[in-house]
């Protein structure tokens, strides 16, 4: 979601004064001249319906100027002033923002009974070559069949369990690698080598997904996994990013100047080249394993075209890789920042594993506190938003009306920090999940890091089993400390402002082996 980028691009460019930007300056100048001072519309008493309150806005740019470099924070601030459901304008287009768990549940339920869709961004058409994917497909027959296919062929409990060997193998490689690094520095006790966990997690999540979905590793070594992971990350940014042309069609030529058009081209071309290569190999290779996901897609009676298959493969990579790597990164960051939680979770993991040389997934299911740690990391650092699109006029309790075809953003960032739902909402307190019954299905009307309703994330099991196993291994076989004697409170926890926010600076920690593998 790059409203802020848009604004920043505009701002920076206006200041620099490169040729086309005086036009925007002019637009803004005229906006200021016509500053809307009309009072905010309030809820109308009685049974009549009304649009949700809308903060005062400027002509032409709407509320764009109020979207700081952190749009979800900015939307949250506007909601605190104007109510949990607001209508903001990005350029001429209204965007409805819901910031309470209650509204999120109500909206999801109402739209689930109709046909829950999502707004698509221009770039998502390029990334998915026409949106024949699951994430953006409207709620239709294709979406239902594709989701079922996903569930049956890749994401069912049985299939996810059957992929445990791949997870084991990749995690063992990571542990060995870290051991090697620590042993090479062991001769010199003062030489503590910090490892870049952000990079390692991206590489690991990418190779785990590539192997699970494509049947074998296509990248040679960490550098190639990271390169592919970065490409997936860029594509992920694009599908949630709004470009200038989307909101100001007459100014779409500015997208070339801001670099957006180039980014779309430079991301989509290598991504599709990679997928074409993979599919070509599958078609020409001699061995066609019936367990092979691509083979099963090709043989499916939905009659999927190559473009459809690429879109579905991208669903897995874009939906799962960056999100899983980010969850691992934030979990470790929060734990080093909170030594008491770190100690408690390590004690639990080591008690469950005992003298065994290897952690099995059945061990992880006994690690209740670890599961709470990951839930808490997802509360604070999971996706910042989920989106819906209304297919017909939608009336919410309180009499607010959202017209058909409107985009709604559910501000998960705000819901997850709502002090009426969470005690000490800004603190990392995994204990809040102990025996709480908050699962990942979004059934409690309060906690839904994977969304909820018909369009809930289908990859929950796939993602959680990966994250749990990786974190359990890192915490079982190593102690972790901050480099250079840094104090936990000094760890930089700033995030990028993407929907799936990453740590702005890489997480580098010093491992110390504690058990032989
Ligand atoms: C920690 C990891 C993950 C998180 C936090 C996450 C979160 C989410 C969220 C919040 C949504 C929107 C749900 C809604 O609108 O109600 C979503 C949708 C989706 N996710 Fe995930 N996800 C993760 C991993 C995965 C994985 C591993 C896959 C695939 C293997 C995946 C595939 C998808 C797909 C295809 C959708 C679109 C579903 C639809 O519209 O029908 N995700 N995810």
Automatic annotation (TrEMBL):
Cofactor(s) required for function per UniProt: heme
Protein origin, superkingdom: Eukaryota
Pfam families on file: p450 (PF00067)
Keyword Cell membrane appears in the UniProt entry: no
Transmembrane segments: 20-40
Keywords: Heme, Iron, Membrane, Metal-binding, Monooxygenase, Oxidoreductase, Transmembrane, Transmembrane helix
MF terms (GO), sorted A to Z: heme binding; iron ion binding; monooxygenase activity; oxidoreductase activity, acting on paired donors, with incorporation or reduction of molecular oxygen
Keyword Amino-acid biosynthesis recorded: no
Classification via PROSITE patterns: CYTOCHROME_P450
Protein name: Cytochrome P450
């Amino acid at each position: 979601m790059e409203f802020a980028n848009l604004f920043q691009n505009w701002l920076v460019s206006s200041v620099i004064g490169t040729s086309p930007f005086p036009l925007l300056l002019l637009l803004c100048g005229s906006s200021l001249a016509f500053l809307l001072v009309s009072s905010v519309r309030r809820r109308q008493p009685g049974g009549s319906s009304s649009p949700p309150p809308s903060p005062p806005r400027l002509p032409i740019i709407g509320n764009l100027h109020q979207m700081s470099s952190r749009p979800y924070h900015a939307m949250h601030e506007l909601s605190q002033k104007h109510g949990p459901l607001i209508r903001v304008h990005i350029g001429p287009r209204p965007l409805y923002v819901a910031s309470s768990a209650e509204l999120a549940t109500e909206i999801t339920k109402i739209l689930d009974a109709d046909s829950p869709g999502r707004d698509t961004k221009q770039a998502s058409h390029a990334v998915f070559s026409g949106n024949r994917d699951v994430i953006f497909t409207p709620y239709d027959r294709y979406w239902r069949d594709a989701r079922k296919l996903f569930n049956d062929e890749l994401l069912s409990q049985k299939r996810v369990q059957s992929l445990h060997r791949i997870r084991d193998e990749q995690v063992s490689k990571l542990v060995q690698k870290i051991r090697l690094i620590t042993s090479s520095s062991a001769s010199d006790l003062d030489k503590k080598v910090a490892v870049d966990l952000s990079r390692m997690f991206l590489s690991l999540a990418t190779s785990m997904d590539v192997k699970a979905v494509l049947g074998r590793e296509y990248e040679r070594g960490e550098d190639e996994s990271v390169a592919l992971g970065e490409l997936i990350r860029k594509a992920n940014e694009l599908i949630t990013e709004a470009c200038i042309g989307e909101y100001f069609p007459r100014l779409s030529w500015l997208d070339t100047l801001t670099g957006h058009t180039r980014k779309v081209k430079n991301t989509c071309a290598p991504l599709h080249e990679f997928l074409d290569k993979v599919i070509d190999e599958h078609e020409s290779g001699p061995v066609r394993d019936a367990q092979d996901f691509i083979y099963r897609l090709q043989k499916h009676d939905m009659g999927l075209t190559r473009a459809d298959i690429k879109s579905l493969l991208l669903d897995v990579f874009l939906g799962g890789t960056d999100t899983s790597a980010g969850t691992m990164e934030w979990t470790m960051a929060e734990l080093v920042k909170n030594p008491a939680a770190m100690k408690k979770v390590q004690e639990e993991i080591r008690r469950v594993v005992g003298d065994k040389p290897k952690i099995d997934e059945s061990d992880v299911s006994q690690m209740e506190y670890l599961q709470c740690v990951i839930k808490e990391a997802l509360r604070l650092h999971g996706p910042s938003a989920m989106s819906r699109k209304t297919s017909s006029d939608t009336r919410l309790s309180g009499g607010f009306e959202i017209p058909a075809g409107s985009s709604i953003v559910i501000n998960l960032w705000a819901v997850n920090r709502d002090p009426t739902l969470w005690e000490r909402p800004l603190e990392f307190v995994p204990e809040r999940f102990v025996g709480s019954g908050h699962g990942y299905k979004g059934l409690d009307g309060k906690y839904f890091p994977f969304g909820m309703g018909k369009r809930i994330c289908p990859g929950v099991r796939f993602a959680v089993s990966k994250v749990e196993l990786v974190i359990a291994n890192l915490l079982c076989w190593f102690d972790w400390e901050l480099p250079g004697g840094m104090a936990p409170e000094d760890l930089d926890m700033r995030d990028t402002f993407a929907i799936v926010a990453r740590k702005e600076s890489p997480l580098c920690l010093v491992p110390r082996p504690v058990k032989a593998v």
